[in-house]
């Protein structure tokens, strides 16, 4: 996996990687500070072909579609997912359940939704799918288009969570109509 | 002996596909000291219309991005009904562009709150509906 990681130097049409990292950092910090009352510590962002993921844990995925298409996700350990739900809902969650997964999905929705809003000024209107949350062991996710993910790791109470986005101009003219609920272009190995 | 005036309470419908957000909004409404009556919930616009047919409410808080029927379509359908023309509907959404806000207002939204939100922001946006 280390071979797949690269420093962020590339620039794509209409969007620099630094701008994308800044949008992810700002949205994630704002959501955690406002809704979860938590200050996050950002670590160094990087790019990789295969999405950063925990071997065991929770990953929440959301699709973006419009003039630009891609995906956004949040991944973390099961323990941190329980903490996120506890911070958001002011209730203790000792183990993963439907409410924890729903809370992680909504946090992801707010983060990626705000990244989308920031990017729309530059890239045009995009639609946001409803989130899909996966909890399990030894899973991998990969963009079907083999795009690179921009990964921004954060530390929350000493535990790591990663917010990542892969996005590129949409070459498929027929799919530019943005609407929520469209399928996420991912392969999933569980 | 003084007779206490009954404080009018507000029945509220919360429309969001996330149970977490429905729970948070209820908590925030209580923190904002809103004179809450009954709180009804719906997971999308279609469910919300069914709730409204059975149960009149004084305020609706609705997300935009939802499956089946999104918040903008819900707004359009509600405003097409004479009985609901003046029902206050405040959109609560991650959609934050000026264009999206203007589209919601154009379809009849009474207010707009961007997620993430604080209890103070919700209170400020809704205060106009409690005072009237």
> What is the molecular shape of chain A?
globular
The helix tally of chain B amounts to: 5
CA-atom Rg of chain A in angstroms: 16 Å
In the predicted model, the low-confidence regions of chain B spanning at least 5 consecutive residues are: none
The computed structural class of chain B is alpha/beta
**What's the average pLDDT of chain B?**
90
Q: What's the helix count of chain A?
A: 3
Mean pLDDT of chain A: 83
Major β-sheet of chain B, in short? 5 strands, parallel
Termini gap of chain B: 28 Å
> How many strands appear in the DSSP assignment of chain A?
13
Biggest beta sheet attributes of chain A: 9 strands, antiparallel
Helix content of chain A: 25-40%
Distance N to C terminus of chain A: 17 Å
Helices and strands of chain A, in N-to-C order? EEEHEEEEHHEEEEEE
Strand order of the largest sheet of chain B: 2-1-3-4-5
Q: Percent of residues of chain B in helical segments?
A: 40-55%
The unreliable regions of chain A are 178-190
Structural class of chain A: alpha+beta
Helix/strand order of chain B: EHEHEHEHEH
Describe this protein's structure.
The complex is a heterodimer of chains A (190) and B (132). Chain A is an alpha+beta fold and 190 residues long. Chain A contains three helices and 13 strands, in the order βββαββββααββββββ. Chain A has helices at residues 17-35, 78-89, 98-123; strands at 5-6, 11-12, 15-16, 41-42, 46-48, 56-66, 68-76, 126-128, 132-137, 140-143, 149-156, 159-169, 186-189. In chain A, strands 1, 4, 5, 6, 7, 8, 9, 11 and 12 form a nine-stranded antiparallel sheet that branches. In chain A, strand 11 (149-156) and strand 12 form a beta hairpin. In chain A, helix 1 (17-35) packs across helix 3. The longest helix of chain A is centred in the middle third of the chain and has 26 residues, at 98-123. Chain A is globular and about 45 Å long. Chain A starts with a strand and ends with a strand. The model of chain A is unreliable at 178-190 (pLDDT under 50). Chain B is α/β, with parallel strands linked by helices. Chain B has helices at 19-31, 45-54, 71-79, 98-106, 119-131, and strands spanning 10-15, 36-42, 59-62, 89-93, 111-114. In chain B, helix 2 (45-54) packs parallel to helix 3 (71-79). The model of chain B has no long low-confidence stretch (mean pLDDT 90). The interface between A and B is medium-sized, with 26 and 22 residues.
